[in-house]
Amino acid sequence: MKKIRLLSTGGTIAKRYDEISGELVFDEAHIKKMFSQGRSNLNIKISPLMLKDSQDMDENDREIIYQACQDNLESYILITHGTDTMVESAKKLSSIKDKTIILTGAMIPYAFKNSDAMFNLGVALSAIETLPNGIYITMNGQIFTWDNVQKNKKEGKFETLI
Amino acid sequence: MKKIRLLSTGGTIAKRYDEISGELVFDEAHIKKMFSQGRSNLNIKISPLMLKDSQDMDENDREIIYQACQDNLESYILITHGTDTMVESAKKLSSIKDKTIILTGAMIPYAFKNSDAMFNLGVALSAIETLPNGIYITMNGQIFTWDNVQKNKKEGKFETLI
Amino acid sequence: MKKIRLLSTGGTIAKRYDEISGELVFDEAHIKKMFSQGRSNLNIKISPLMLKDSQDMDENDREIIYQACQDNLESYILITHGTDTMVESAKKLSSIKDKTIILTGAMIPYAFKNSDAMFNLGVALSAIETLPNGIYITMNGQIFTWDNVQKNKKEGKFETLI
Amino acid sequence: MKKIRLLSTGGTIAKRYDEISGELVFDEAHIKKMFSQGRSNLNIKISPLMLKDSQDMDENDREIIYQACQDNLESYILITHGTDTMVESAKKLSSIKDKTIILTGAMIPYAFKNSDAMFNLGVALSAIETLPNGIYITMNGQIFTWDNVQKNKKEGKFETLI
């Protein structure tokens, strides 16, 4: 069984409702809850890197993600990430040639009844088990290569450039 | 984009609670609800074949599944199926050499809060987009070939034979 | 604040899906989960009496419920109960004149996404805080007295006799 | 059966996640979904008054609520409302002496898995069926009179003044 490293960075997938502030905040426990609900049997180690809206990520944050991909020994890396700058982070990682790296996230947080988080996590994990080395984004049930994907912000879905 | 055919046959994934009878019954609409929740953008046609507990499937039922795999023009076929005889149905299909066929299902029905259905559907779809021709089962986040998988009924999970 | 005693007896409200057997079983923890989700601040003690489909309850079971209502010191008693014989159990308790006793349950188990359990629990608790001594059933948002209620099994709802 | 008027004004209970903006917005359909899930049989007419965070309500908004309570012919009025200024709106209504008016809401929106909305709606409906004329708040399973209640913002729960 492949050894997989999951790097969590926050994003929509991780948000829960804070009843004191009345605002969305990040739930550090969301990844473990999802694997448990999916009855996953995979060999996965989880490293929380940060808890950020991807709109608030800067070059420094992307450097941290890049370094974590380099430093972790696993060849298979799954990154949970906000959708707004997921494509930029994928580009940042494109110089890494010897690993299979998948970025995924959610349009609706895991904490909501109608969330796509469990579905997206499933797509990403299966992709990481089967795809050759490279940098990919999986959203909307589709697998995209890092250099042919964009977020259509009007429709709230990912699509190829052409 | 690959053209995928989904054959639904019932199983745990499809069960809902019937408030008149107080029993679990099959919900024909479960597949559409799941694709909608997953915000899937894939090109998938759905064919309901039957609505059965896989424990109640006989040789005749498996023949219907086999014929549907043969008759549908798509090379990529996803079958939602009860878990108890999923392995037997996979065996039945093993003579089909020119298609990628994935069987999946759920340990907990989609209608339950803690269901693994969305996760399993994601794993199966991604597998169908990436795997070479062959017959596979995807459960518990893992991809199994038809000839090296069994359901561990005591623990309620799928595992390799050796 | 009134001291309330909750007697749980099983019924639809308490069912969860057992992934090993593939059948509905009773979840002993359902009551605590519901109070926690409701952010209830009430002073309530919980006594699990049994875990039974109300169809399977016999005169002996109803005697146990009757005794528990008598033995517990609280004047306010909430009973979670299967819907099929809820009316019979209410009748059994009708000789108790010095307490407010409410029976409630659910048409769809708490474990399902579309459950009415939280709603029904809320209706019952508020009723117990406001109603005079007597035996009542609360279902479908309505408050019924024990001697003017029946379950319409065809439509799956409770209604008055006339 | 009592004729009840429900006035919806927005608040936490009504929020859903907008996947285009990535923000919480108001879902006009939340009330109907809740009654349907609760399998309510009550005679209730729904009037959407506004969709506002109660923090953003001003004297003008409270005047609209006050007028709606006066203008509607029903003697039983349920108001769904944000929690932050629920107490202020209750005060505003305290001069109405010939109706039973209940204000309720939620700490966690209905759209979230762990929402208290269904529970609170149940408590409010039962209270409206049983309480004498007056202005009340129902939250955390408790019934408060308008002149003896405050929101403890630190703990996120409602409590009596003394």
Sheet having the most strands of chain A: 6 strands, mixed
Computed structural class of chain A: alpha/beta
Helical segment count of chain A: 4
Widest sheet: strand ordering of chain A? 4-1-5-6-7-8
Q: How many extended strands of chain A?
A: 10
End-to-end Cα distance of chain A: 36 Å
Percent of sequence in beta strands of chain A: 25-35%
What sort of overall outline of chain A do the alpha carbons produce when their principal axes are compared?
globular
Multimeric organization: homotetramer
Mean pLDDT of chain A: 97
Low-confidence stretches of chain A: none
Helix content of chain A: 25-40%
Q: What would you report as the Rg of chain A, rounded to the nearest angstrom?
A: 15 Å
Which pair has the most extensive contact?
A-B, 35 and 35 residues
In N-to-C order, the SSE pattern of chain A is EEEHEHEHEHEEEE
Describe the structure.
By secondary structure, chain A is an alpha/beta fold. The first copy, chain A, is 26% helix and 32% strand. Chain A contains 4 helices and 10 strands. In chain A, the strands form 3 sheets. A 6-stranded mixed β-sheet of chain A has the order 4-1-5-6-7-8, sandwiched between helices. In chain A, strands 2-3 form a two-stranded antiparallel sheet. A two-stranded antiparallel sheet of chain A has the order 9-10. The relative contact order of chain A is 0.19. Chains in contact: A-B, A-C, A-D, B-C, B-D, C-D. Chains A and B meet through helix 1, helix 4 and strand 10 of A and helix 1, helix 4 and strand 10 of B.
